[in-house]
Amino acid sequence: MAFSSSLAFPFPSPPSGTFRSRPTRRFRAGTAGRFLACSSPPPPSDVVVTRERGKNAKLIAALEKHNIQSLELPLIKHVDGPDTDRLPDVLRNDKFDWIIITSPEAATVFLKGWKTAGSPKVRVAVVGAGTARVFDEVSQLDHQSLEVAFSPSKAMGKVLASELPRGSESTCKVLYPASAKASREIQGLSDRGFYVTRLNTYTTVPVEDVEPLTLKLAISAPVVAVASPSALKAWLKLIPKVNNWDNSIACIGETTGSAAKKLGLKSVYYPTTPGLEGWVESILEALRVHKQLKEAPKC
């Protein structure tokens, strides 16, 4: 389960002739990643969750159901991209057959620009259920202006690029607001005759200040859960080479899993279908293998 709160408060003295044990204080990380209270060494963690602060709650809750203890260590943060301010003007001044959104963060940034532009009518194609959920509230309230109309058979950009339907128009215009670090997979639509306008509306940067004790606990955890190649790279920069870290990486999907292998990591787990449920299963599998190796007799 996730680290739970609790600073200790004074307890009243028990009545004469009775005994009352004082509850053990537990451990939690504060907003800056520092430990607020601890009367004894914190318990070891099973999994390190690494998304931007405030975006790990669903994964932590899903792992709690399996009695898995998580340590939150955000590895990246999102910042504006070079085209953030251009997005509202582009939406006001041009019409697109499709808006392509490939991540929850891209969806959040797009919705902000879309509202600034006056909520023009758009048709959206999304990659992944998590991305689609970001649009749920808006599409229900204003379904005439924003329609989530397509999702590929597999939550990958290259699959969307091969499956996105096009009308009978001679040209089919696509707007692709994305991370500046996103691959060019979606731009493969150009090979199918789509005209693609890409805007780099945000980017990711590594978190620079990590509390030493938090990092020490993270390095000792059997599994690190990551949701992007950027998080992988940030993790590798944090690990001192002298530790020879060789525990497991559990990735949200194939794209991040493939990046982990390319970066030289050996114990890499990821689901065939990206998403929270598959990610949790990959984490559980990594923990099962870790336990088996730990319990195996030494030769």
TrEMBL record:
Its EC number is 4.2.1.75. One of its GO terms (biological process) is uroporphyrinogen III biosynthetic process. Keywords: Lyase, Porphyrin biosynthesis. Pathway: Porphyrin-containing compound metabolism; protoporphyrin-IX biosynthesis; coproporphyrinogen-III from 5-aminolevulinate: step 3/4. SUPFAM superfamilies: HemD-like. The keyword Transport does not apply. It comes from the Eukaryota. InterPro entries: 4pyrrol_syn_uPrphyn_synt_sf, 4pyrrol_synth_uPrphyn_synth, UROS/Hem4. It catalyses: hydroxymethylbilane = uroporphyrinogen III + H2O. It holds the Pfam family HEM4. Residues 58-281 form the Tetrapyrrole biosynthesis uroporphyrinogen III synthase domain. Residues 1-10 have a biased composition (Low complexity). Residues 1-23 are annotated as: Disordered. GO terms for molecular function: uroporphyrinogen-III synthase activity. The keyword Ribosomal protein does not apply. Transmembrane segments: none annotated. Belongs to the uroporphyrinogen-III synthase family. Catalyzes cyclization of the linear tetrapyrrole, hydroxymethylbilane, to the macrocyclic uroporphyrinogen III. This is Uroporphyrinogen-III synthase. It comes from Urochloa decumbens. The lineage of its organism: Eukaryota, Viridiplantae, Streptophyta, Embryophyta, Tracheophyta.
